[in-house]
Amino acid sequence: MAFSRSLCLFLLIAGTGSHLHAQPLRSVVVDQTGLPLPGVTVQLLDGDRIVASTATDGEGTFQFDPQLTGDTIAAALDGFQPARVGRDKSARIELQLARATETTTVVASTVESAAPTSALLGSTLTADTVARMPSAHMQARESLPLLPSVMRGADGLMQLGGAKAYETPLTLDGFNVTDPATGLSSINLPLENVAGIEALRDPMSVTYGRSLGGLVRLESKPGGDKFKTGVQGFVPRPRFARPGFGRLEGIFPRAHASGSLASGRLRYSTGVEYDYERIPVPDVTDRHGPDLIEESGVVFTRFDVGISARQSVTIESVSYFARTTRSGLSPRRESAATVDLSSRDVFGGLTHRLVTKASGVFTTQVGVFARRADLVPNGSGTAMLSPDGWSGNWFANVHRTSARFSAASTWERVFYSNRRPHDVTVNAEVMGRQLDGRVHESDVHVVDAQGRRVRTVEFGGPRAFGVRDRSVGAALRDVWQATKRLQFDMGVRADASRYGGGTPSGRIGARIALDGAQRTILKTGFGRFVGALPLAIAVFDAYPTRIDRWLDPDEGTIVREREYRPSVGRLFLPRAKTFVAAIERQLTPGVDGQMAFTSRASRRLATLRVANDGGDASIESDGMGTYRELQFSVRRTWTNDQQLFVSYVRAASSGEINDFASLFQAMDAPLFQPGGRARAASDAPHRILAWGTFNLPRSIVVSPVGEWRSGFPYSPLNVRHIYDGSPNSRSFPPFMAIDAVVYKTFTVKKRKTDLGVQLFNLTSHRNPRDVYPVTSSPHYSEFANSVGTILRGYMLLKW
Fold first, then answer.
1. What span, in angstroms and rounded, lies between the C-alpha atoms of 349 and 301?
2. Architecture of domain 218-798 in CATH?
3. What pLDDT does 357 receive?
4. In 476-623, which residue ranges form alpha helices assigned H by DSSP?
5. Model confidence over 68-119: pLDDT tens digits?
6. Which of 544, 503, 515 is nearest to 398 (CA)?
7. E strand or H helix at 473
8. What is the model's pLDDT at position 359?
9. What is the model's pLDDT at position 638?
10. Which residues contact 300 (CB under 8 A, 6 or more apart)?
11. Burial annotation 16-27 (CB, 10 A radius, 16+ → b, else e)
12. CA 30 to CA 43: how far, in whole Å?
């Protein structure tokens, strides 16, 4: 009822926009051999706003009403490079075979992969916008929280639409590049090698599988016609705040080169980047340390070979490493209790595309991904947990190697029924995964404020583990242009895995223009998602047993003793049912509004079940979760990349306290206790986001970002670190941050350079990241680890 009233109010206040009259538009879309392409998705754009959408007919032609506003035509068909042309130059649009030419630098391309039901606002960013916004690193993924549906959770990982990070995999050019053990990925490409990055929440396209809440799609850029090279970030950045004023804070050098050979038949693109950042921790770091240090490096290469006008092959590879020194350092975790985390990812993929004479597109992809991850404690001996936090050591030493081998084939062709196109896609894929490793756990002692032991956990000896999995998937999709105003996106798929069994799923969505000018669009859909099981779940029964004792603090006698044996019960693939509805409206020329509602119910989640009387600590696929979201967004655009974006999100999220993937995200968990359902750890009922980018005189750009949201929940604990009352019943204070970048563009010998400053948390608002949760502690409910204002230099060389 509340949603219906909000929808009516939104439509009531929507203003009427003026029309820009144009001549009748009748155009044709052809491939690079000159043959017409039927079923091409064609959009009429006014800036970034989608005014109208249609598909080419059997002769490759399309037409828009001349009364519609818009001066740009965007055309896309799977297997071909998308194209954008001016409306007055669209009589004949030529699409090149995919990966045969350099694409425009666009983050979240408007039309390339978007289904008719994809949201307009809050899901796309251009690369120019990313480069103009404040950012600690010049990386496209880092800017995703500018979208109202993307937020960094309590664990520091990005969450898309309330879904946990492992439920939203990352793909690179169609390949899954997440860790088979955890479902997480940290791979980032140098910005110059990124063609697009997109946060997909649309639940209607069945060609995307193995995700519960969406996915992040990263597309790389092929080489262009001309040789290009350049370097960035090679000037070290000193720290301009205390503690550690004047010390090296970071350096982020990167280099790139691209071009073509053999008259453009062979194109190449490569990039290298190294990131180093020294991060001081409030109330811990002094002038000389200790600091939390993050390092990463990536080498990316890509070759595109044009075999013929209808065939192309792409070969690409990524080598990525990441290292965090003293991970977890905080006022509640001393240096000896931190760990060094390191990982190394290697990926290689081959894509072959063939356009048949019947205008069908056949795509084959073969890929391999491997990862090594290590967790090494910085201390020695027993790990101590007091009401004030961890000291002495960390309890787990873990080493893992994982790999994925995949092959997929996709066939797409447009068919016609009563002169209306059906864009049909058939997809099939097979995958093999494996995980090997070893784990060694040391004792944990829990003490009270006086240092007396109240709980101990003893572990069995070191253990090795290994697992192999095979999975298959198949999908059938139909995008049907039912009328000029109505489009459907529907399909079915099936997924099966050795460790999760098999299950079918289906999705359907619709895009409806409510007026002839297509200024008001209704989008709705319902779908069933099927996710993947991280392989770390399947090896849990190989972990050491643990003996959990409760002690009397005065006499040291044993009050209770329980033995827990890790085990794995019957597993199923997790699944979720999602409903979305959105209304989009052009309020006035240059001003767009959107209201969207999302409801998701998840089940069959892998959950750790811990009994009070000991025995098996078993993983069971019986967990559940829910998510509800109502989002309002408004965007005002001007010329020359200027815009203002404001959004409000009202959300509610609940789930399992002992969700296995979250509990073992750091490779191991020190303490077990019975779980249950409660508010999700990253539940933020209210979030307001506003950002803009504006041009000032003398080539000066200013881009502010403001965010306010509800504080994340936390759980009160008793002295033995058992829930004291309801889990996640208390909350951190609200989070607020205002960031900004101001820079000026200089031109020297025809080369442009942006120089300026960045400010983070401009108002120095207190945003604590730690809390003292033990109810018997004198510091109970006190917050810590808040970062003040940060000043950084900004430099971007446009070579």
1. 11
2. Beta Barrel (2.40)
3. 72
4. 535-538
5. 778 888 887 766 777 888 888 888 888 876 644 443 333 333 344 445 666 6
6. 544
7. strand 463-481
8. 67
9. 87
10. 189, 190, 193, 220, 269, 270, 271, 272, 316, 317, 318
11. ebeeeebeebeb
12. 16
